[in-house]
Amino acid sequence: MTNGQRKEGTFGRMLAHAAPAAAVEQRIVEGALARMEARPRRRPWVLPAAIAATAAAAAGIFALLWSSAGDLPPGGARRVARHGDHATLAPHVTVSATAATGSLRYRVSSHDVSLSVGARLALQSSDAASPRLRLDAGKATFRVQPLASGHTFVVQTDHVRVEVVGTRFSVTTDVRCSTVRVTHGVVRASSTSIEGPGHRLRAGMSRRFCRRAEKRHAGLGEGDALVREALSLLGDASSAEKLRHADRLLTSYLKRFARGPLAEEALFHLVFIKHRLHDAKASEALARQFLQRFPSTRRAARLRRYWPEKKRPATDQR
Amino acid sequence: MSAKTPKPPGLLERCQRGEQLAWRELFSKRAADIYRWAVLLGLDPSEAEDAAQDVLVTAARRIDRCEAEAALTSWLYQITRRIVANRRRGSWLRRWLPGREVTDADALSEPAFEHDGSAAGIAFELDTRRCLQRMPDELAELLVMVEIVGLTRDEAASVLGLPAGTVASRLRRAREQFRQHWQHDDADVVLGKALREGS
Known about the structure:
The complex is a heterodimer. By secondary structure, chain A is of the alpha+beta class.
């Protein structure tokens, strides 16, 4: 059986039950339920009811805009927001949009914030000139009014700090990464884990920011994170830069955790990386080292299959 | 003689009656499947999440068109492939818009599934997704339909509106192409070839 056959035979079995993270699954379910509630199935009375509701909503929005136009009230208004409501976000209070409430809309100073279901947002600084918000989970969309000179509007997650230059944009965050999408205008987004001037994103652009491996997999141990990141880089065989980065990560793992639980995996992949980088000598030396250290493993058997008898290390001539 | 107790209504029937709890049950049961299909049909994890929501909402709107619970999987899959195709068309267009930069999100490096910390599992998932992405859409889709969704050839033929013979030959081609892509990428093979050649 060739490798391809082996792979193709297991592909269905191995991925047939692959599941997303529980949080992702929950977001899908809750989001779909909320959207379903927001858009009920058509009934004969829908049209007249919709007309009446639209008229009422228009009157409500008009009244709300009339009453809430102006500056942020000191201390922020503390009221329960419901679906379609447009309340002022109170400082240092975390608000969450759940399936029960549907999406929420808030006013921060003169700017609009919409929270999608599953989102959790807090206003860290209620300074009307330079509000600062923190998004802990989910997706929030911001419509920012033109800012006066010296004024700022900042949104931060675990992975990114977004400073508005005058725009409409959304930020989506989960445990691993945050994605910034700009609808209108320009924002400057900088990673919270990498020093630098950040990225200037214009309308229509998006960028994903993830924690660096050491932070991302902190709970799983630093060594494991190094190997995981290296393996995820290995997929793109066309990029020598990624291969070199994976090489550095795995070499670093083997230096620091020579007897670590992933040493076998790291060494095995390093053999291939060196080869892909056209370093045949290093690849061969590592292959010999692998056969000496892990002679009775399945990976060793795989290496031997491709290893000409005459070139096999003396210790392995059994 | 006791009267026959009526059979309790199935999940599909309860959904069609508009029971909210039944919807939640259906969504919870199917969300992971739909997300998995969307990822393997070529969407990145965050887009697949949005697409999965779209599929469930569309299913809720059109539930009256699903005739039997046994057909639910293939019916949901049909909705998924349409929504995924629309999203992929959209992302193809966006890529050609002026001012668009290639972003980190474009790289296939983020695993979409949980692997309980297994590095090998992540590598396997990424390799598989990459091989599928390199195949023509109609072949990749058929392979996912049969290997992942679990449809029979006849069911796949009915979903695609093609004769069963055409589906069978296309499936053969799909398997062959997947195998070729995998072998092309497989580091073992690359190293093995080089070692045999004495490099």
